[in-house]
Amino acid sequence: MVNTQTPLKAESKDLNFFYASGHQALKSVSMPIYENKITALIGPSGCGKSTYLRCFNRMHDLYPGNKYEGQIIMHPDNTNILEHGVDAIEVRMRISMVFQKPNPFPKSIFENVAYGLRVRGETNKRTVADKVEEALKGAALWNEVKDRQQDLAFNLSGGQQQRLCIARALATDPEIMLFDEPTSALDPIATANIEELMSELRHKLTILVVTHNMQQAARISDYTAYMYLGEMMEYGDTDTIFTRPARKETEDYITGKFG
Amino acid sequence: MAVQTTQTQASVLNNLDAVRAMIRRHKRNDILFAAVGLIALMIGLLTLLTLFIQLVSDGYPRFNLQFFSDFPSRRPGSAGILTAWVGSLLVMLVTFFTAVPVGVGAGVYLEEYAPKNLFSDLIEINVSNLAGVPSIIYGLLALGLFVYGLGLGQSILTAGLTLGLLILPVVIVSTREAIRGIPVAIREAAYAVGATKWQVVSDHIVKYSQGGILTGIIIGMSRAIGETAPIITIGALTFIAFLPPSPISDVAPYLNFEWLSSGFTVLPIQMFNWLSRPDHAFHINAAATGAIIIVVTLLMNGTAIYLRYKIRKNIKW
Description:
heterodimer; A: alpha/beta; Rossmann fold; six-stranded mixed β-sheet; four-stranded antiparallel β-sheet; 10 strands; globular; B: mainly alpha; MetI-like fold; 11 helices; 74% helix
């Protein structure tokens, strides 16, 4: 199971997570995240896969009372990003996120992509413009919007908005990108575009994706983790998980007998 | 077989008749309620409209520029509202600069920064309660605090601060409501790129809630402009034949703040003063002033609606 050729980008070790209500949403989840690979998290609703994903950029910190236990180690610096001394903002600068529903700011296309740079205090107009162009190209959106970068982001279609959100997350050169069901609000064509884009992006960064869609996990991911009731049921390379799952529960889920 | 089919059809038809009768019955209730609602609405609207029309027709002889540029006078025919509208304007200026920074600041703090605990719950309940405190109580508070305590006197500054305090809850509550209207997804998007709380507040929260905040400010101001009780309590003059010093001067720094400590009167007090005279001719002046106050209030509320529409136009959620 441990892959020795591909370097590790991050790993979670005995990660427990408790919501403010006291509900334990993650139970001792341990899992490697390999560099320049796509790792997919699958499982039925409420299994904790989104909760797990949102630990990686400390999104849970925004709401009081949530509690992490255990570690998420980031390589090569071996930082435990859940540690109290590590600022959540630093973590979010290294690990960016794309959400389930496209959530552009009510600003121009350009300003949406530039926002991450502005947050980092980048004021050089040339640098910002170059970075925005690079990110829009990286998100396969440049050709569609290059002549109307000052237009409001809401004027784009849903699929374009999602690619804009990817560009926004890309502009700051993150090490890991988190995708929380990025295509669940999109039509099949826009979904195919995003999937292609994710396969492309893997050469630049490491991807962790939550998906409801098992075919999607099979199509795009290198590794797959099946979660159920807050526990990591099975982890392995995607081919193995989908063809020869070790556990009966995993097989039942991916064949549609359950979930 | 054929007979059976006919029977089924007959029962379907019977049933359909029953359903149609039921729908008709239910629709009668719809119409009944719509009628009652319309009557209730009309009672409110027509009363207000009648009042306004009466004010306008009573005050009609005084609607000319002279009325706006004349000082008050013993002779009703040559008495005007110059000191009153200038006073109202200057008081509103102070109110604006008091209530907006404090109210918006408090609203943003409560919504974005304050920890959620018993103490903040207590503050929350009290802010809402403050909006319901009778305005004369604010007048008493201001008399003790501003006029005597801080020695600000019966001045424009005192009146502006008092009305600022009075509309503070309105501004705070509308700020908080506007902020709550911003979807969680937008907030999380901003945090996810690594923004600090202050960056999220200044680049997003305040910008996207502008429409609602502005509406709250204007509605608060339009309430303040018609307030009489607290202004009387702090001792505004009812007859004043001079203007406060001009806020703009011809020598650097071109601003002057002497007007803040000047005596003053405001539109509703001028109106109240004229109404209390036995001479009927003064009542015409009062009616004209009343109509002007209503028009100003309507204009302010109209502006609020327009601004909200204009600002919200680019925001879709």
